[in-house]
Amino acid sequence: MIDWIADYYENIEKYPVLSQVKPGDIKSQLPEIAPLESESMEQIMADVNSIIMPGITHWQSPNFFAYFPSNSSGPSVLGDLLSSGLGVQGMLWATSPACTELETRVLDWLADMLQLPDKFKSTSEGGSVIQDTASSAALSALLAARERKTKYQTNETGTRGNLVAYVSSQTHSSVEKAIKIAGIGKNNLRLIGVDENMAMQSDLLETAIIDDIHNGLIPFFVCATVGSTSTNAIDPLTEIGKISQKYELWMHIDAAMAGTAAICPEYRHILDGIELADSFSFNPHKWMFTNFDCNCFFVADRSALIKTLSILPEYLKNQATESGAVIDYRDWHIQLGRRFRSLKLWFVIRNYGVNGLRYHIQEHIRMAQQFAEWIRSSDEFDLVAPAPLNLVCFAHKNGNEFNRELLETINKNGEMYFTHTVVKDRYVLRMCIAQTHTTEEHVRKAWKNIQKTAADLTLTDPK
Amino acid sequence: MIDWIADYYENIEKYPVLSQVKPGDIKSQLPEIAPLESESMEQIMADVNSIIMPGITHWQSPNFFAYFPSNSSGPSVLGDLLSSGLGVQGMLWATSPACTELETRVLDWLADMLQLPDKFKSTSEGGSVIQDTASSAALSALLAARERKTKYQTNETGTRGNLVAYVSSQTHSSVEKAIKIAGIGKNNLRLIGVDENMAMQSDLLETAIIDDIHNGLIPFFVCATVGSTSTNAIDPLTEIGKISQKYELWMHIDAAMAGTAAICPEYRHILDGIELADSFSFNPHKWMFTNFDCNCFFVADRSALIKTLSILPEYLKNQATESGAVIDYRDWHIQLGRRFRSLKLWFVIRNYGVNGLRYHIQEHIRMAQQFAEWIRSSDEFDLVAPAPLNLVCFAHKNGNEFNRELLETINKNGEMYFTHTVVKDRYVLRMCIAQTHTTEEHVRKAWKNIQKTAADLTLTDPK
């Protein structure tokens, strides 16, 4: 299997990046009934090759520029394999002390690598935990915020329709989902307007808060974004943080992809203001070579989180927990059970070294900036939003329909894969450069491909 | 790494099952700061051996009888490795069609293996999805129930303190956690009493519902359990189902561990009444040789679930989704991102074959029944609850303190690991027999160990 995976990475560029199958193509090749008797691994792997592989969109291809990435690396895959092999379930300290203590240590490493304030470290009042995704982290933050604001009474009595949360129009959809899940209701979520850089306008935030207070409502939560999904916009953390403190809101920072950049001293400024935040999360499974899933969620006051999510039935009681000397991470997230996910993160940080990680991040940003420069110098394309890091949003001057056709033609061709967004009513193409094995050559080829496809389309379909 | 794992399984019985380290032992051996430069895999693996391994509680040991198991197998580890290697993120059909379509097919296989009603299959109005844990599945069910009952308005307006949910005193704590998360409030959760077999008393359920309606409240959800965590108690599904239908409650069935037994025709009766349920979940990562995490969540009306959890921002729009011809599993759970978890399940079902899986389940139950018989024939121990499947709850006649001491002595000794619960004020020992490699010899040795330790304790500490 290890050989199979090595071969796969060797040959990954031979596959169309975006799977070209039609709905039902894969399912129709799979038997309708499970086999009664054992089948050999050879039979199964033959089906992997013939049935599954055509239905794969190759997230690990160096020509994958879509969405935010979900990159990976050799040490990560090995660490994850070790986790599968050990098969421990780290819900409590006692159910594998190493699972808890390695996690605590590695997350403290990350806090230092990101130059986070001490309050987010396990040695202070705060701490951190590995969650599956930034969605779950945002939900956990929102719940702790809800409980802190209502003196931990909402857990007992339910919500009452008077709590209000704030995001910008560019905040990730997971926060809206969390608002619904938490029983707050979408009507109590305010979408604050953004400036020309797509960043939240803090004066509008304050106005909205004051309005809500006037109307007898209770502002309790704001999510600021560092690197929005659409355009990598960065909200003004310091200003939002000051407003949060003034009105006693819980400030959560979602830096799902971009957060990784802050391990490079020259990009650490994207987190300036984080000292005012109550929680922060980013995904090593996006841009830090650690395979999905691995979200790191930092909280300044761990007691708020634990008081919100803790349940202790008899069958989970044990001496270590009762002693109070240990962390039981089950109280830090939605689920009870948990994988030994810190292993892969530990493998990645040690095998790359902090400098090795920085090098790759710096290269990605350098390539993206070069791509942005090509766009700026082009007569046919516009840079549609600032490109502070590794995501470049651009559009051909020929209008929305043309851009849609351009995207679909290129993705169908299979040499590369990128996705779109809409910015100020423009259909915009997104090039996100963060795949582990992407080199300048891949980016250069992508740019040629985009130019050539646009030229061909202009000829066949002049506007 | 594969060799390391093979060696580990070879030698697993040499380790103390429950890790014997003290709080802080592991962490204190790990450097406080991440390495700047790359370290070799050899260095890392040396630390795995010397630092991590002493901090492992060996869930995969055949002498692990604690909690509910989290068992695994060779094909599962390989399938999970393939998932890590491919590194696809299956949030949308388009982001890897095989990830979605294999999942749909394998879950339909499982529906047939469990003889579930057609309504839970993808070919009907229902369907199923792999979630991480039964906690997340219960939360998803609860949210869909909340929305269906309030005509999908709670997502908009928030909860209003008038919805009421029902569980038994034996229901897993994850439902109480879900009630809090969903903004319903613990005060609106009724704990229905149980009979002498620790099963929910359906007449008390109906009485509670009627009371709540009289008080102007809105009953909306009941969770029935097949195989409770404490004692493997089985709630009366048919009676609870009829009451649910009469009062229009969403009935969720939590069969986290015990559900797997229903793939054996002779134990399928544990699910009798499931045709009245709205949702059902069980964990192949507990007792079906599929490593954590893998929960299968079945729902009779997928539209209720999707309407509850769907969010569609611009950057996730794509032709396949808009066509309506595909499943986007991100709308079926809390998170957005998702691993390719059906691979390991597919590998397990094919490599074992349904008959192979049944054989191991039957063996586990046979061994547990034998152990229960030993307890019944013993003069010193009582069988404290019925043992319908693979969990045996028993207690020494010498009282609670003695049983606590017995448990702690045995676990500290390291030859085996089991845990406790409290039943009718008795401190009770739990033997759960479900580990992949547990044989009759292990169970026999465990029983001898229990008897001998009890005898030694009686001598040194006579009551």
Q: Which protein chains make the most extensive interface, counting residues with beta carbons within 8 Å of the other chain's beta carbons?
A: A-B, 143 and 144 residues
**C-alpha end-to-end distance of chain A:** 51 Å
The neighbouring-strand order within the major sheet of chain A is 1-7-6-5-4-2-3
Percentage of β-strand residues of chain A: 5-15%
Task: Describe this entry's structure for a reader.
The structure is a homodimer of 463-residue chains. The first copy, chain A, is an alpha/beta fold and 463 residues long. Chain A has a domain at 77-346: Aspartate Aminotransferase, domain 2 (3-Layer(aba) Sandwich). In chain A, 42% of the residues lie in helices and 13% in strands. In chain A, the strands form 2 sheets. The first copy, chain A, has a 7-stranded mixed β-sheet with strand order 1-7-6-5-4-2-3, with helices on both faces. Chain A has a 4-stranded antiparallel β-sheet with strand order 8-9-11-10. In chain A, helix 13 (342-377) packs across helix 15. The longest helix of chain A is centred in the last third of the chain and has 36 residues, at 342-377. Chain A is globular and about 65 Å long. The relative contact order of chain A is 0.15. The mean pLDDT of chain A is 96. At the A-B interface, helix 1, helix 2, helix 3, helix 4 and helix 5 of A face helix 1, helix 2, helix 3, helix 4 and helix 5 of B.
List keywords for this structure.
homodimer; 463 residues; alpha/beta; Aspartate Aminotransferase, domain 2; 7-stranded mixed β-sheet; 4-stranded antiparallel β-sheet; 15 helices; 13% strand
